[in-house]
Amino acid sequence: MSKTITFNELRRLKDSLPDGSTHRIADELNVTVQTVRNYFGGVNYQYGKNAGLHIQPGPDGGIVVLDDTTIYDMAVKILEEHNAANENK
Fold it and tell me: What pTM did the predictor assign?
């Protein structure tokens, strides 16, 4: 299932993730860390694969269409877990 968001929203999600989240996502999905970075806007395809993200010019950094939301969904889940753990402290 695809999802459309702005590039800045995608970057805010990435920047909000706790340390080690990129590695955790990569390990759980059995992909390279660079592939996860590419999903969040990176462009190193020598060590990572295209992650099914299409960016079009537009407001708020442009429009991003995510072909597969698996990495996005995992990032949201990790952020929710992190926020819940911090609320309970």
Answer: 0.83
